[in-house]
Every structure is written in C-alpha cells, then in structure tokens.
Fold this protein.
Amino acid sequence: MQVLFEIGIEELPESEVFSIEEQLRTITRKVFENHRVNVSDLDVFVAARRIGFLAKVADYQRENVREKRGPARSIAFDKEGRPTKALEGFLRSCGVTLDDIKVRENDKGTYVYAIIKEPGKPTEEILDEVVDEVVRSLHFARPMRWGENVGPFVRPVHWIVLLANGRPMKFSAFKVVSNRVSFSHRYLGIPFTVDDPSQYLDLCRRHMIVPKIADRRSKVVEQLREVEETRDVEIVKDNELIDEVVALTEYPTAFLGEFKRDFLELPEEVVKTTLKHHQRVFAVLKDGNLQNAFVAFVDGPRELSESASAGYSRVINARLDDAKFYFERDRKRKLADFVADLEGVVFQHDLGTLKDKVGRIQRLSAFILKGLGNRDPKVESLVDRAAFLSKADTATMLVYEFPELQGVVGRIYASMDGEPQEVCQALEEQYQDVPSGVVGAVVSVADKIDTIVGNFAVGNVPSGSRDPYGLKRKAISVVKTLIGFEWDLPLDKLFQRALELLNMDQEETLRELDEFFRVRLEGFLQEEKGFDYDVVRASLELSNKPLRAFLSATALQEIKGSDLYDDLVVGFERVFNITKNHTETYFDSRHFVEKAEFDLFEVFLQVESAVEDFIAHLDYRGAMRKLAELRRHIDRYFDEVFVMDRDLSVRMNRLSFLKRIALLFKKVGDLNWLERSEEEQ
C-alpha cells in the first residue's frame, strides 16, 4: 500500500525546516512500527508551504501476540487435572481456549498464562490514528496558535491530503478535513488533484514545487554551476547560504545581479558578509578577484528575476554605502585606540566591562603560556598584543552595524595598522572552534575560560536546553583546542586562575565547572571521536587534562579485543576488587612472607618506574602495555598468597600493597568501566 500525507501550511521559518525533516523521518517510521505496520519505503518532504511523507507500508498490521497471567495452577486445575471454574472464567475473559494456555513457573509460584493472539487490522482502518500521532509528535522551537485558539502547530494549516492507494482517507486536524486536493506554488495559485500517491512528485513538478529538500539542494547547486559556466565566473559556494535558499523556497531560481563597482574598494570580507548576511546572495569571483556581481535566488519562475534583481541591487548598494561610511570613519583611528573605548562597554552584569575582560584575557593568556613551558619572549609578546587587541573591534562603528564581522574587522584593521601577522590572524581566530595558530589558540582558550568561569561564578549555569551565553559550545571549543594543539594543561588550574582574576574564590563553582567540562569531554570523545562508551567512561578518570583523557581513550580503543587489553583489564580487576574499600597505600615489603609477594613486588617496582616514564611522555599505549605485563604475576600472587590473612598486620600490609598497584593502573584510566572480552568473562 502506498500512502501520501501532506499538510499545507503558511510559509515555514527557515529555522524549523531541517528539524522537521529529521523528525518526520524518525517519527513516521517509529509510529508505523509501534502500530505494527511494516514500512518498506519512506520518503519525507518539507518545503516552504508543505510538509509530509510518501510511504510504502504493509496492507495489514502484524499479528499481536501477548501473554496474560491467570490463576495459580493449584487454583486453575482440580486434583484430577480438570479445569476449574476459575480457569474457565479466565479463558472466557481472554477469549481463548485450553489450547492457548501455558503453565509456567515464576519467582512467585506456578501460574497459568493465556497466549492471546490479536489479528492485525487493515492498515487503512488505523491510518488516521497513525497520522494523528505523527502530527502530534512533532516539536517546534516556536509553535503558534491561530483563529479561535487552533493549534499549536508550526504555522497555520490550510489543507490536508491523505491518500492510501488512491483512495482518500478520513482524517482531520486543526479544523481542516483531508481530501485529495493540494495547491501549487504561490506564484501559480491554483489547486490540483492527486488521484494516486505515485503521481504526487510529478504533479508537484508540474505545479512549480520541488517538495524534497535533497532535490531542491541539487537544483540550487546545479543552477550555481550553470551561472558559472555561462558567465565564466566562480561563485563562492557557502553551504550555510545554500541551506537558507533550500529552506526558504519551493522552486528556487537563480539570477545574476550587480552592485556599484566603487564598493570593491572596501575590504573583501566586508562586501562578502554584506552580501551573505544581509541579502542572502552569493559573492562572485573572476580569476580569484571579487566582482561587483552577485547570484541570488527567487522562489518562482525566471520571469520574477528581473524585478527582483533591481530590488536586490538597490538594497545591497544601500548596505554597502553604510559599510563604506563606517569603514572610513573607523580608519581615522588605529585599532589600538579603540581599546580605551571598551571601558564604556559592559561585558556582562557582575563581570565588569569589556576593558576589564581584556585585562583578564591578557593575564590568563600569560598563565597559559607559562603552563605550556613557553620560554620564547617573542611568542609572549605576540600573545599579549593579541589579547590586548582582542575586543578592540567591538568598539568600531563597522562592527556595531555589522556584528557578524567581529574578529574579521579586527584582523583587517590590525593588518592595515602594520600589526604582526600572527596577531592579525589571532584576532579573527579567537572566535573559531579550533584556531589554526598558536597565538590565536592561547587567546581563544583564555577568552572562553574567562567567560565560562565568570558566568558560573555569578550563577549563570546552563540547564537543559537553556544556554543563553553559549557556554557549552565554548567549553567544547576549549576541549578541542587543548587536544588539537596537544596541550597538557590542567583545567582546574585554569579555573582557579580565572576565579582569582575575578576576585572570587568558590569551591562549589570549581566542582560545577569540573562536572560541566567532564560532560562536554564525554560527548566529544563518544559522539565526535566515536570511542566506545566503556572506553570513554574509563578515560574520564583523566578529564582534568583533556589531552590525557583523549590519549587514554585512543590507546584503549586501539587495543580493545586484543590479549593485551584482556591482560590489562583482568590484572586491574583482581587488585581493584579486593581493595576497593581499602584506602591505605603505605606498605612495608619487609613484612612479606610468600615468595610470590616478593616476586610481584620486584616486578611492580620495575613496571611502576616504566609506567611513570611513559605517562610523563604521554605514551599511554606504552604505559598500558607495561601494566598488562603485571597480569601473570598478579594471577600467581592470588594463587599462592592468601590476602585476607588472620593476622591483621599481614592482611593490612597486603591490601595496601595491592591498593598501590590498583592506583598505578588508574593512572591510565578508570579501568573498572571496561567490558571484558567474552573469553575472559
């Protein structure tokens, strides 16, 4: 059976489009499955004025087989084994016969169970329930109501189509009754009838609709390519911009427009940003040089492009004229002159001005360099200068009018002022997820740590999906940067220094920050790096130094499933399990009695020294390989030594020795989280 479901709505906001597509794909399949209907093919579509799906589904639900517990066997049957009235009543209530029961024992006794088989209904009979559940399961960032309190839904609903093999199905939602009539692109403004679901996509094409996101994206990319070939130019293909066009249209059509050539005197990034952020158009290059041209899209036929082109050009010229005015005003001063203006810009309530923040970034950057063991005064000077200028462009008129250029303007102005290239690069890179240069990375980490710690200190802690200051994203950026640059920095020291610079000292804040970063690190290792859950949990023992946690997880993932892995896990478990409630680590080898004790102690001293050396050089694979060598000696120890000796002093000495070994293992991670291989279980 082929099913078509379409809801016609008023224009969707761009922010909802891709979320709805993903939800429809997941929810639709799940709801059909929950109703025991097999789905062999599912195609979802989301366009500016319609959402829905095409699906091939089974004609009938799957049979439902369930068990229901009845009376105990002693009550269900008499002494001769004949059914009692209690059993007969139970059978009638379930609609089954004696052939449909089983007698089974559970932890409470032996009971009769009825095996109840419910035949599947025709899918057509339950289709309205399925569709209703799909619709009600969709979630939106900003749902709305309309009319006489109709909704909530993403936008007002105007029509609904629900067909099964060409037959219209009875369904209504939001005071709209379904039928087989859909509507064309708004430009045509005509209804059309869908006789069969298989015709739907073809009918859409004929009525100037490209309902599927993937098809619209292909159309946009193809038209950009056609403009490039016919005009012999290169279009700056911005994926974010392509997504915007795809989300806002049903029938995207490209056209080439122009703006005044005089504006090419502006820095290239200013022009590109104005084109992208203010008019959603693509910049055009020729021989690598920016042209006074742009590519835009109309939602409709090519006839609309002539009038649209004039409108786009008028607005773009006006915005670039503003940019030129602000740029020329700004350039009457050097970038460094704007730093003093930051005194009048509040960074955040309770956290001072941007000038205060710049001072903290400078000192925290110096602290980071010291932690990295930097002895190069040139690097120190570059970092200090970049930190000093890091927020200067915030006070410029150009950034005030075009806030999306923050960082870019800093780089441009610094370069025009003759600042070192590393400083110019850092001013832009400080806002990136992971900067490419060392100077930018230091300033970026300092800036983000100051923001995160400051917000936590004044109680602005993210909760659930509420994160108005983007602290989660900033924390992930810090983690990625430390790992990407292989910086072995302890987070707690950074937190403590940041609190000192804020003149705050809060133990609870430090605990909250530790957990906050631990969760971000866990997500990064598992979701972005793809490490197994147990490996990630083990490596989080080292979360205070994200680089070490990453190296530990990498090594554990590499050896997982090998003999080395099994020896590591089993060796640790044997010493950990017996000492998990023991805290003392001081022992005296002179009190050892058995030869196996002395042998393990001798091997332990060699392994401990080697492991410490491997870890000092961040070689966690080598440390794990060395630790795994202990396994056979530990096995022999437990075979020949009775740890829980009746002599308390002997017992305590042995437990302390084993605790010391367990803690050595823990230097590569909390191996207690690791899953054993099947052979070792």
